[in-house]
Amino acid sequence: MEPHLALNIMNTSVNESSLLLQAAAFAAEKHRHQRRKDAAASPYINHPLAVAWLLSSEGGVRDSDLLAAALLHDTVEDTDATLVELEQSFGPAISALVAEVTDDKSLPKHRRKALQIEHAAHASASAKQLKIADKIANIRDILADPPAGWPLERKLEYLDWAEQVARCCRGINRALDARWDATIAEARRALKTED
């Protein structure tokens, strides 16, 4: 390999690592006072980290913009972060991807959930992968340590809704599709035993 090509590859890798670390630090700062709804009230940052890790390790995703967006995917929806702030810090591609997966919190919850299904069908390939990974992570959390006070009926309603979203996001990443199939099947089996 020519020395200048090796240097370009190395710089790209360093730049991508820096981007991901910057996104993780930004998300950790924005989510620092938030807790998940599980019984342990675990730190919220665990969720975006899990989504990014799932995309990379189980989905084979190497696109640093998609992985950074996974780390940032709830910052605009659930913190004081803005899309302008994300664009200034991470560029227009990452900001646009976060915008694609961000719910409008001014709308009632039932409307936001319906819009997620509607928007999923028309989302970019990257947004579809992020949506599936997010739903897989949420379902795993529901099985491992469900939100405090969630009865079986609410868990099943979440699975039904998540399936509708995921159905619109399939066909982009075979590994994620397979992981989705395994996760939803496992969740259905596990929740049947709660019945």
UniProtKB/TrEMBL annotation:
Pfam families in alphabetical order: HD_4 (PF13328)
Presence of keyword Hydrolase: yes
InterPro entries the UniProt entry points to: HD/PDEase_dom, HD_domain, MESH1
CDD domains found in the cross-reference section: HDc
Alphabetized UniProt keyword annotations: Hydrolase
Domain HD: 44-139
GO MF terms held by the record: guanosine-3',5'-bis(diphosphate) 3'-diphosphatase activity
SUPFAM superfamilies noted in UniProt: HD-domain/PDEase-like
PANTHER family linked: GUANOSINE-3',5'-BIS(DIPHOSPHATE) 3'-PYROPHOSPHOHYDROLASE MESH1 (PTHR46246)
Protein name: Guanosine polyphosphate synthetase/pyrophosphohydrolase
